[in-house]
Known about the structure:
The complex is a heterodimer of chains A (107) and B (234). By secondary structure, chain A is mainly α. Chain A is built from four helices and no strands. The mean pLDDT of chain A is 88. Chain B has helices at 4-12, 21-37, 42-52, 55-66, 71-82, 85-90, 93-96, 103-109, 115-124, 133-158, 164-184, 189-206, 213-233. The longest helix of chain B has 26 residues, at 133-158. Chain B is globular. The model of chain B has no long low-confidence stretch (mean pLDDT 90).
Amino acid sequence: MSNSIILAILVTSLATYMSRFLGVVSSEKIKETSKLFRWFNCLAYSTLAALIARIIIFPAGALSEIDYLIRFIIVIISLLIFYVFKRNLVYPTFFSAIILAILSSYY
Amino acid sequence: MINSKYFFKGFNSIKKMDSPAIALGCCFVAIGALLKNIGFNIQESIFSTLLIYALPGSLVMAESLLVGASLLNIFLAVWLVNARLYPMTVSLMPLLMHKSQPRWKYYLSCHFIAVSAWLIMKSRYQSVEKKHRIDFWIGIGTATWSVAILGTLIGFLSADFLNKDMMIGLAIVNPVYFMCMMVGAMKTIQVSLSVILGAILGPLFFFISPEWSILYGGFSAGTIAFFIGELNVK
């Protein structure tokens, strides 16, 4: 088992570093004022948003045990708190964790 | 070699009140506990965060190990979920590149590219002159990387004390934190549209192909946002 864990870690890190490495290779030829750069900037933000939305809507692991309506309500309230407290990031994060832990213990 | 003034300026930027350190730490606490539960020992858990340092990748690895997937399957699954790092790198590194800096700094420090460090750098890069940005970035990266490793260690050690409800609470921190940070980054038409369309199209493509949904959704949303933004600028 142990051997396969190490191999799995190495394979995972290789698959992860590959995208970062190729990104630097491409960056050498891209100017920050170019259209190509702006396109990649859009792609980066949209891919991140897609990933985060997927984690919230179709979660894997612990989160999948929570009803999707509850997840949805928590996300909306967290966003409201974020705006009410002048874009503070700590309050919504703490709120979401505590409320969800409490809700899931009653649920 | 590395200008320490800018390195520490970057390193200390995670100490601020709204820093991602808390959310990042929470996520890796969850990962540390998860890794212990699936049979990793302490060295393997730390080693994995040290080398991978990308949360969705670690999760995919853990799930694949549980179902006994082959190494090739793990490689492909991780590559698919972490391919977002490619556009993230391409949209960050050109801002940091300077002729006077050695290339190895870029190839080594690209390991630090992950959502948290990337979002901080994107919001702060203008406060540092271009020549020193890479050292500032290495500072941010080292700090966030250390938090992740520390979080994994804490998670591993406290796995027995974390019940299911607490794990669920930890699991929501990551998406909520990054969602708020992304919404906070919506300052131009292109970025705002990218975020909104990505959040809509990503889950929609999930119905067509769960594995490819992030790439399909991200690619189409980013491209649409780019063209709408370009048309509006002119």
